């Protein structure tokens, strides 16, 4: 499984458990990793 998906899943689980501070951080990190990986994939494809 990709890293961004694991981070988002863990973030959602923590959000459900009530740990909002940690959950929001993990969700944002997961989204950031997803965006960076998409940009890198597009750059590689452009070459």
UniProtKB/TrEMBL annotation:
The keyword Membrane applies. The chain crosses the membrane at residues 28-46. Keywords: Membrane, Transmembrane, Transmembrane helix. This is LPXTG-motif cell wall-anchored protein. It comes from Isoptericola haloaureus.
